[in-house]
Design a protein that fits this description.
The chain is α+β, with helices and mostly antiparallel strands and 886 residues long. The chain contains 31 helices and 13 strands. Strands 3-4-5-6-13-7-12-11-10-9-8 form an eleven-stranded mixed beta sheet, sandwiched between helices. Helix 3 runs antiparallel to helix 8 (216-238). It starts with 13 loop residues before the first helix and ends in a 12-residue tail after the last helix. Mean pLDDT is 75; it is low at 1-20, 372-391, 501-509, 533-541, 800-812, 820-825 and 876-886.
Length: 886
Amino acid sequence: MMTEPAGPHSSSHPHSRSGMLRHLAPVLVGLGLFGVGLWALHRLLKPVDPADVLAQMQATPLHVLLIALGATAMGYLALIGYDFWALKYLDKKLPVRVVALGGFLGYAFGNTIGVSVLSGGAVRYRIYSAFGLNAFEVAALASYIAIAMGTGLSLVGILALALHPAALAGLLPLSEGAVRALALLGGGGTLALLYALAFSGKSLHWRRYELSMPNPKILTGQMVVALFDSTMASLTLYILMPAGTPDFVTFLAIYAAATMVGVMSHVPGGVGVFETVVMAAMPAGVNAGEVAAALLMFRIIYYLLPFAIAFIIVSLNEARLAGGWAVRLFGEVSEPMRPAFSALSGVVPWLAGAWALGFGSYLLAVSLMPSVRAAAADDNDIVGAILLEGGTLTSAVTGIVLLILSQGLARRISGAFVLTLVALGGGAVAALLNGLRIDSALLLIGGALLLLPFRHEFYRRAAITEGVLSPVWFGLVLAVVLSAGTFFFFIHAATPWSQAMWWDFATSANTPRALRAGLLASAMLLVFTIVLALQPVRRRAAAPPSDPLEHAARIVVAQDRPQACLALTGDKEFRFSPDGRAFIMFARRRNHWIAFGDPVGPEDALNAAGWAFVEAAQNANGRPVFYEISQRHLPLMVEMGLSLHEVGEEAVVRLPDFSLARCDLLRPAHAAALRAGLTVEVMQPPHAPELIEELRAISDAWLAAPVGLEKGFSAGRFETAYLNHFPIAVVRRAGKAVAFANILSPGSGRRVALDLMRYLPEDAAGLSPVAMIEFLFVSLIERYRDAGAQEFSLGMAPLAGLSERRTDRLWSRFGSIMFRHGGAFEDFDSLRSFKQKFLPDWRPRYIALPVGVSPMMAMADVATLIAGGPHGLLRRPGGAKAPAKS
């Protein structure tokens, strides 16, 4: 039995605590493994001189770098092959240029950052959805790619291990013979199973998961891609490795094992974990410093360089879309590719945030490195010492500022964008002061210039620090701080510690200077974190309208969205956009803030309304949930970090195409209704009290029947004030009202829907209630078609086959409430079949909710709101007497 908590903002609710733990768990586990990786690296690198690592990197021959760059290019070309075969598997066809762009950007951003909103699936969704793929098709594509990559890499590594079982002899407590036997058995058995399933067409079932193999042609192509991908990636690192490294096939097994361990650790890019495995697997005679140099160059070439190239591509094309100098230099974006680059605007804020986070990390590292100028400077040069001290401290502070601003950029805050440009400029000045690092200064200036084309994407006016303590941001910043600390001890390990170091301001005093910079940066971040943590939950907000319902009504009447009319039921709260032109209607249940439908208002104000609602919920320790979201707003949901689940499909009749002659299943009942003398009359508001009382008798009789249940939230109630907003269609026989429905047709009236639809339970002239309601639908559809309307909504129906899933009992109970008259049918298939008689378009509707929140728990709260409270859930409508309107 459900009970209400003490208040909507309560944070002590067990579901709140468990949900928070589920949300924090991946971050904490990733941080723990990252810390273990750093500790292991520190132990492995203890005898290494940092100067030797830098010298080894600088001494790398040009031809070695060129081969590594070539192998990287071929590796990323192979990665695009995953997308090609995944689309073949899903039987989807996209232009080759679009697949190449989506594949490259997905891997370049996802491999380097590893954050869910910038994963390969999120980037691909932006591009591929512009060419017709929906969210679930892109999710299926991303899942297929992840499985294909993991399976391919594992098989390559296992088979390489079968050829050279000594590759991981130092890491596995097994003999070489046992390793070879297990590798052959595992690799050969897996390949045999995959091809057996591919040829037979059968699926592999495990618990609630089902894996369907592609046909043999696609599977073979995928295996070739996996082999080529793994070979080129490992070759990039292998060519950089020092003398004494095992032969390439052996190294391939090491690389595959290190990559898989890195992936399983959930650390972004496997940083620290991957390096630890590679170093631990090297023979005893291999120089650890040279291995460290090779791993560092591999990270730069295989990860950072593609990320930078991808960022430049997005930046230049954003500038080309805006026109001006970029068009004169590079020409306009071709029409076939314009949708792809336009769609990427949604991912720009996260890219810019990652860009700022990267530069902040870089400036922290620069502040901890020995100064080049210091090596040649005179310790008596007071001016030089002041410049070095100031440059080092400024680099550290600027790095922390960029870390803080990265979260603001991800949330499209205009102030964060301006301050990021200022910080990058200040970092360039600091680099010049800190040892005349001209290369660093040019890098920072270039980074600022590449951000400029994105300036129009940062339109929000909000506090930069709101939401800055999110688990993902906190985890990333903590990882940067851990890395900086490890880097400091690695760089300055040879310097003996003494208390006098704090007061050594000589030009050559690199370690004291770095120590002071690190202390200042840490203190600044600590103070910032404490101040934020001690801030009250409430934030200053714009004054709400004096009458929110009246203000919302003025917005609704200007829209062409029937669903928006449900804002007038009086049972919802409103969250308006900062300019007051758009709103979200919502209700609270436990710690869920549940919005109904799409944002309402002018197109250019909808995103701001969505952000205002999400941030208000988060600031109140609530979980934002959007119920019945349409496809057009899915990019906004993804941008705000919400996950999507399809819950049903809206049946929409295209009125210009509707003809009763085409609907064979409707004609008999319609003809019978006409013979029985049924008529439909549409009454305009305001309605006479006599009419309301006449209809109230019908409503009371309907509610008293087993099928009847007064609902709310996603449906209107029989209340005079509410009904007086809308026209009402009344079905009469011999002058007596036998059924009615209120009509939602705001704005220009081009889109129409019905809300309440009630009828007398007893037979009307021998007609079944189904036939009577069909008659009402057909009459109104023809009436509004002839009046010039374009669409008539029959409401939402559950997905086909949904009731057969494992959640059958829960979903059946929720569905009978959520699909307004769903309890009037024996099952969901009957509800859907009724609406299918009108030959509608089926348009998917979704629930969007934070990652880690159970969809079924959210749906339970939605059902409770619709039912008017927990008591409403206990009364389940029954019978199979009438059709439903959801």
